[in-house]
Design goal:
The longest helix is centred in the C-terminal third of the chain and has 30 residues. With 107 residues, the chain is an alpha+beta fold. Helix 1 packs antiparallel against helix 2. It starts with a helix and ends in a 14-residue tail after the last helix. A three-stranded antiparallel sheet has the order 1-2-3. The protein has two helices and three strands.
Length: 107
């Protein structure tokens, strides 16, 4: 019975850590940049775009294709940073438990 009680306590602690991690990700703002800072995109921890900042010198109508590419690159940069942050938070929340690859928590 001690093992079951210990497991339940451990599961509750992990659930609390998961909730804290989720709140931290929700509150996070990650900035992706491209074009040496000419384009910046801010996403929250869930990948929702919050802001776009474009250097005014990129507003040349002849450069729209480049601007679109830079926006896409900045978004990709921010999204990769979110994924890295989420992975680090997950490792922290699970306390180093070896969970199967691809396991999505919370269920």
């Amino acid at each position: 019975m001690k093992n079951i009680a210990g497991l339940m306590k451990q599961a509750q602690q992990m659930q609390q850590k998961m909730a804290e991690m989720q709140a931290k990700l929700d509150a996070a703002e990650i900035v992706g940049v491209s074009g040496a800072g000419l384009v910046q995109i801010t996403l929250n921890g869930k990948g929702v775009m919050k802001r776009i900042k474009v250097d005014p010198k990129l507003a040349d109508p002849a450069e729209i294709d480049m601007l679109e590419d830079l926006i896409l690159a900045a978004h990709t940069d921010a999204k990769e940073k979110i994924d890295q942050m989420a992975e680090a938070e997950m490792k922290n929340a699970t306390g180093g438990m070896n969970l199967p690859a691809g396991l999505k928590l919370p269920f």
